[in-house]
Design a protein that fits this description.
This protein has 123 residues and is mainly beta. The protein has no helices and 10 strands. The strands form 2 sheets. Strands 2-10-9-4-5-6 form a 6-stranded mixed beta sheet, with no helix packed on it. Strands 1-3-8-7 form a 4-stranded antiparallel beta sheet, with no helix packed on it. The termini are far apart.
Length: 123
């Protein structure tokens, strides 16, 4: 069974930066897209950003554009989210998952949800 580990979350002041990682034990998504999602307390999970694993093309939610950068390290089977200019409203648990492509992954994912990694931004 493929294992996935999300990490990199923490406590940061508003305006600060964090780098999240999501590492898979096996790569079964060469033709798919990987994406980050987040869920704030009392809110539904929402799409943050996606990347085509093979091509590197990306797609961002409006709130992430210009502040967040999604990338992947193929040698380490790792998905990365570099976040900067963080705001209090970015506080959430961040998750990664796999989908068909960068357009559809925001609506449908293939895998189950893991534990995620908590990001807390202090205003």
């Amino acid at each position: 069974q493929v294992q996935r580990v999300e990490s990199g979350g923490g406590l940061v002041q508003a305006g600060g930066s964090l780098k999240l990682s999501c590492t898979y034990s096996e790569r079964t998504f060469d033709t798919n897209a990987l994406a980050w999602f987040r869920q704030a307390p009392g809110k539904e999970r929402e799409f943050v950003a996606a990347i085509s694993w093979s091509r590197g093309t990306t797609n961002y939610a409006n709130f992430a554009k210009g502040r967040f950068t999604i990338s992947r390290d193929k040698t380490k089977n790792t998905l990365i989210l570099q976040m900067s200019s963080l705001r209090h409203e970015d506080t959430a648990v961040y998750y990664c998952n796999v989908g068909q492509n960068i357009s559809t992954v925001s609506r449908r994912v293939f895998g189950s949800w893991g534990q995620g990694t908590q990001v807390t931004v202090i205003a």
